Amino acid sequence: MSTPLHPVVAEVTARLRERSRDTRAAYLARIAAAGTGGTHRERLSCGNLAHGFAACGPHDKAALREGHTPNLGIVTSYNDMLSAHQPYERYPELIRRIARESGITAQVAGGVPAMCDGVTQGREGMELSLFSRDLIAMATAVSLSHDMFDGTLYLGICDKIVPGLLIGALSFGHLPGIFVPGGPMPSGITNEQKSKVRQAYAEGKANRAELLEAEAAAYHAPGTCTFYGTANSNQMLMEIMGLHLPGASFVAPDTPLRDALTAEAVHRVAALSAHGDNHLPIGHIVDERAIINGVIGLHATGGSTNHLLHLVAMARAAGIQLRWDDFDALSSVVPLLARVYPNGYADVNQFHDAGGMAFLIDQLLGAGLLHGDVRTVFGTGLDGYAQVPSLDASGALQWTPVAKESGNRGVLRGMAEPFRADGGLRMLAGNLGRAVIKVSSVPDDRQVIEAPAVVFHDQDEVRKAFERGELNRDFIAVVRFQGPRAIGMPELHKLTPTLAVLQDRGYRIALLTDGRMSGASGRVPAAIHVTPEAQAQGAIARIRDGDLIRLDATRGTLDVLVDASEFASRAPATADLSSHHSGMGRELFGLFRQAAAEADLGAGVL
Ligand SMILES: O=C(O)[C@H](O)[C@@H](O)[C@H](O)[C@H](O)COP(=O)(O)O
Ligand code: SF4
């Protein structure tokens, strides 16, 4: 007997359905039309088809000519830049072999670009990062437009890659699809130890060699970085939305269990194709309930603020009109059940070992805080995800019910003793517009900051002012002209060590920006994604040095304390951004900057 759905979850879902009624209906009609006529290879000409199987070996070629068995398309984001994606190098060959052994075929449909935000953090490349999400969606469509496929496997993990792949996948929502994760790297030095060396370096108390040693001990092997940033928030989302196999998110790379899960992903997506009896297009899995489950998962785990952008964009790709108000309405009823860095000291390996996603989902389902009656790639409702994968004595994959007690109360807790009554993702609103703040890792005495503004148009200027000794005081750093239409909405996470040093010196400080922060940011209060942005003449463009600003995360307000008529009479500041619009490929993204939506609509171009 399942627990009745929490009334707020039911109400927010109903509101989302109503808001999305027409666009969701149009989307479902579109994918229904695309899905008619069974497998698509029958519609290809002989020339099209021959090109499609020319390079195949005899087994695959014969199967593709006959067309009686599923052909799976692999969209891969493999490269050697992202430690998380490096394990994917061998996946196409593994998947093709597994397919062949199952009497079906698989082909790499195409590759998509993947940016490592860790490599680009604080550098020009970061100004392409957000736009790469939509570029990945387009590249996914280019891959699948060969129309040779009956199901798809998406190989992607990190920040913009999973959102981009899912947006692209939903354009082919008539096809079954499954996300295939690679898993986190083994734990290195703790994130806390790494951050301490960074702060020491920012203060000149550690040298570059010591800093590099610490960084290399944190990021030291193939696999996803083990903090709970956007990449690992993506894994949580794909699992709680039913697009991963249960428990697949955080199993280590290159292990027998990881390979068994990848093999099962191949079997599952083939079973969901139009060739089988359980045809399940991905566009039917990603419905309003799955999206609401994703929002709830973000709140319950203190997930990345980047999903206030990406989940909105992913939902829209399925005809679903998710808004920040939906996040806000759910925030107060979903408790924080996990403390993973930056929301605590543990990492995702310790989260997984404590019971991980299966325990989290079991607890939330038991409290009526998740839609259980959803469709998933596993073929069950969400109750099937309260299970842990393992290999039995014969090496076969099995799932067993998760324990009802957390394996580590310091990392993962049950509904009876949450870390916080709410998830800590808060919306802010006031005479400066709207913004987002994550308070789950901000000390309680830093959740309300009222201090004079110090205005910057470039994140490097903050560090220089710090090094000149100008910031040893209470202040709110207003870093503007960072929005999508200005310079592509980069993450300003490189500011974290400097601002954390000042906060640790006892100053009451905060960051206010129309840019983003990393999902790994956290200790310093930061009102981010301010919309309207400065480049769109938002109120943030009227702030002057010395203006008193009040950021109140407890009441959800963000205001400049200046006479309203005087403030309105000010001409918005302008900025020469030309140096940000060329070099490192930025000259290729002018159309993206011109077309970018506001942050609360996903800040993208799709
Ligand atoms: O949203 C995120 O999770 C971040 O973009 C993350 O992917 C990025 O790589 C950080 O920069 C890593 O943290 P450090 O920069 O502190 O190593
Ligand atoms: S989690 Fe971030 S830093 Fe780590 S591999 Fe992914 S994008 Fe790069």
From TrEMBL:
Pfam families: ILV_EDD_C, ILVD_EDD_N. Residues 70-382 form the Dihydroxy-acid/6-phosphogluconate dehydratase N-terminal domain. PROSITE patterns: ILVD_EDD_1, ILVD_EDD_2. It is an enzyme of class 4 (lyase). [4Fe-4S] cluster binds at C158, C225. It catalyses: 6-phospho-D-gluconate = 2-dehydro-3-deoxy-6-phospho-D-gluconate + H2O. Binds 1 [4Fe-4S] cluster. One of its GO terms (biological process) is D-gluconate metabolic process. One of its GO terms (molecular function) is 4 iron, 4 sulfur cluster binding. Pathway: Carbohydrate metabolism; Entner-Doudoroff pathway. One of its GO terms (cellular component) is cytosol. Residues 411-603 form the Dihydroxy-acid/6-phosphogluconate dehydratase C-terminal domain. Its EC number is 4.2.1.12. SUPFAM superfamilies: IlvD/EDD N-terminal domain-like, LeuD/IlvD-like. Its cofactor is [4Fe-4S] cluster. Keywords: 4Fe-4S, Carbohydrate metabolism, Gluconate utilization, Iron, Iron-sulfur, Lyase, Metal-binding. Catalyzes the dehydration of 6-phospho-D-gluconate to 2-dehydro-3-deoxy-6-phospho-D-gluconate. Belongs to the IlvD/Edd family. This is Phosphogluconate dehydratase. The lineage of its organism: Bacteria, Pseudomonadati, Pseudomonadota, Gammaproteobacteria, Lysobacterales.
